[in-house]
Every structure is written in structure tokens, then in C-alpha cells.
């Protein structure tokens, strides 16, 4: 058990400090997930209105409007995650079969095609909810 804790600390120390931009974040993403993350980023960006900017928030990529962060996204060794808020996830619950969800997270497995049309609808709904 001690070894596991030591390894966790060592890996945390290696990643000291949050990435400053998307390119720096992408360098930390496991190679198998990079293409999916880039695809997800493109889909998200295409569904957002003009004036939204890309940022790093909580150590992961996000898109921000003048009202605050609209949506976060990230990649891991076996999935890409989208963080659109619990209300948005609840609205699309029936369409998210095959994905793991939690209160504010959707996990898209890397061994399946990224559902780009669904991601676009989720982002559009998040933008709509942020205005109301």
C-alpha cells in the first residue's frame, strides 16, 4: 500500500502546476486519447457561439463566455470526458446509453466512436441553459 501512495505522489509532482493552454494540456494526455480529444474539442468549438474563448479551468480545457465557463472537457487513458453540468446530463440521459455518467460528467470510451452529433447537441443545450 505504501508503494501505491508513493507512486501517486511522484506522478503528482511530475505534473506540478496546471497547464497554461490547450497545447500544454494535450502534451499530458496519453497518446491513445489525443486524437479523440482533438476531435471532441473541434465538435465543441463548432457548436459554441462567437466570443467564447478557450481556457484552462481546474487543470483541464474549458470554454468560457462572459458569464463564466460553459463546458469543460478532458482525456484519460481509456476515455474522454465532457463536463456540461448535471442539468444537461439529465436532459440527455436516454441518449447517453453506452457512456458512463455521474452527476456532472459524461465519459466516452475510447474503444467506441465519439458520438459527435450528440456532443454537439449537448453543447448547444449547455449554451441555451447558460442564457436562461
Structure description:
With 132 residues, this protein is α+β, with helices and mostly antiparallel strands. The protein has a single domain, classed as Aspartate Aminotransferase, domain 1 (Alpha-Beta Complex), CATH 3.90.1150. Helix content is 45%, strand content 23%. It is built from 5 helices and 6 strands, in the order αααββββαββα. α3 packs across α5. The longest helix has 17 residues. The N terminus is likely disordered.
Notable traits:
132 residues; alpha+beta; Aspartate Aminotransferase, domain 1; 6-stranded antiparallel sheet; 45% helix; globular; disordered N terminus
| Helix fraction bin | 40-55%
Count of separate structural domains = 1
Nearest-integer average pLDDT: 89
User: How many beta-strand elements?
Assistant: 6
Q: Kindly, what is the distance between the CA atoms of the first and last residues, rounded to a whole number of angstroms?
A: 49 Å
Structural class: alpha+beta
The percentage of residues in β strands lies in 15-25%
Question: Could you give the topology of this structure?
Answer:
Elements: H1 2-14, H2 22-28, H3 31-47, E1 53-57, E2 60-65, E3 68-75, E4 79-83, H4 86-91, E5 100-101, E6 106-109, H5 116-131
Antiparallel strand pairs: 1-2, 2-3, 3-4, 4-6, 5-6
Helix pairs in contact: 3-5
Amino acid at each position: 500500500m505504501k508503494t501505491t501512495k508513493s507512486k501517486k505522489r511522484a506522478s503528482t509532482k511530475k505534473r506540478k502546476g496546471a497547464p497554461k493552454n490547450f497545447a500544454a494540456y494535450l502534451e499530458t494526455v496519453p497518446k491513445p486519447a489525443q486524437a479523440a480529444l482533438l476531435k471532441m474539442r473541434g465538435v465543441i468549438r463548432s457548436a459554441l457561439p462567437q466570443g467564447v474563448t478557450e481556457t484552462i479551468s481546474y487543470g483541464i480545457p474549458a470554454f468560457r463566455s462572459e458569464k463564466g465557463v460553459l463546458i469543460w472537457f478532458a482525456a484519460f487513458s481509456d476515455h474522454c470526458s465532457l463536463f456540461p453540468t448535471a442539468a444537461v446530463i439529465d436532459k440527455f440521459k436516454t441518449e447517453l446509453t453506452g457512456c458512463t455518467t455521474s452527476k456532472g460528467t459524461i465519459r466516452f470510451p475510447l474503444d467506441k466512436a465519439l458520438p459527435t452529433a450528440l456532443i454537439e447537441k449537448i453543447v448547444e443545450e449547455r449554451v441555451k441553459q447558460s442564457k436562461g
